[in-house]
Design a protein that fits this description.
108 residues; homodimer; DNA-binding; elongated; 5 helices; mainly alpha
DNA sequence: TATACTTGCAACCGTTCGGTTTCATAGGCT
DNA sequence: AGCCTATGAAACCGAACGGTTGCAAGTATA
């Protein structure tokens, strides 16, 4: 059972759940109302999200309120950082190219 | 066949391929040498990466050189941005809390 | 032309995924 | 106590996934 954050965000329904929980913590029932699938299906998604610590639960009487663990999202950001460096470098290079072109044009 | 960028990066082997291609464009054979799996398996991963435009191919004689399309990675960054806003806001709030605590302490 | 190399594609296989249905548990309400 | 509500867990199912094996196509090289 591979259960890392990348596998967790691969499913569109789970990304939607994350988006909803980012706005407001919610119970499974409240979440399920936003989807076409059954409550149980949402529950399974929540289980997966919980297993990789993207979401935390808090018992509140007979309800369970799920919250987004925003810090966990930083892991994706951290992974992305190496690539962000690349495209920022490329952008600088593009800037240099444009600079050279401007100078070339000024010569004429 | 769900084939978006999030599903593409869900697999660890594909993330490794992306990392390798970020360093240098490569042929499937050269890529496959870095993995335990067969060349065909790598080829299938490349197909998936190609289908969602994360990777581009250039025929070079009988070889095909694969390159990372770094711009496509920005899509993940764009998706992440909404959540980055949240954790940055939280950080600011934490800063405010610390500020208040400092003032409180200064009173004593 | 014959041969070797690089690659993609199709068929197959076991596992995982995402969903439904059914059931069990546990907390509130009358 | 008895009932309703909220939730998770288990069993099952079809589809997709990730892998292998075998094969065909195209390119270099003798």
């Amino acid at each position: 059972m591979r259960r890392d954050i990348f596998q967790a965000i691969a499913d569109p329904t789970r990304r939607a759940i994350i988006a909803l929980l980012a706005i407001q913590a919610m119970t499974p029932n409240a979440l399920a109302e936003h989807f076409d699938t059954s409550r149980q299906a949402v529950s399974k998604h929540l289980k997966i999200l919980t297993e990789c610590d993207l979401v935390s639960q808090e018992q509140n009487g007979r309800e369970i309120v799920y919250s987004l663990e925003i810090d966990k999202m930083k892991e994706i950001d951290k992974w992305l950082e190496q690539y962000r460096k690349i495209w920022e470098t490329r952008f600088e290079q593009l800037g240099e190219v444009l600079e050279v072109m401007k100078k070339e044009k000024a010569k004429t």
